[in-house]
Amino acid sequence: MAKTILVVEDNQMNQQLMVALLGHYGYEVIQAENGAEALSIANSQHVDLIMMDMQMPIMNGYEAIKALRQDERTSAIKILVITSFALNDEKQKILDTGVNGFMVKPIDTRELPRIVAQMLEKETQQTWKTE
Q1: According to a count of CB atoms within 10 Å of the terminal CB, is the N or C end of the chain lower?
Q2: What does the alpha-carbon distance between residue 95 and residue 112 come to, in Å, rounded to a whole number?
Q3: Where are the domains of the chain?
Q4: Is CATH 3.40.50.2300 the right assignment for the domain spanning 4-130?
């Protein structure tokens, strides 16, 4: 059975790239354009991994991650943040939210599938960082 990934991204080009790339590797991909949509989907469907942008309208990534981690139904879902924030203090702030991984945009299309596969294979809450 294919693993399900929720891509939460408000930029259509980035969203399409991630959906196409992940679909190529056999993942089932669900899309959301903001944190509020992501919460609704994560609470109503089985999701193995959430790929979360941080800057979005309606509900940003910080708010969505906090809500996901506080809800027992979604607290164990692995979260990979993909963001354009590259400053060290911002990276640490993101990692402190309890996410499992962090990637900086632009997306490395060779690295992303490798990290996603590793995250989905591991039972632990290991943290991945790529810059």
Answers
A1: N
A2: 18
A3: 4-130
A4: yes
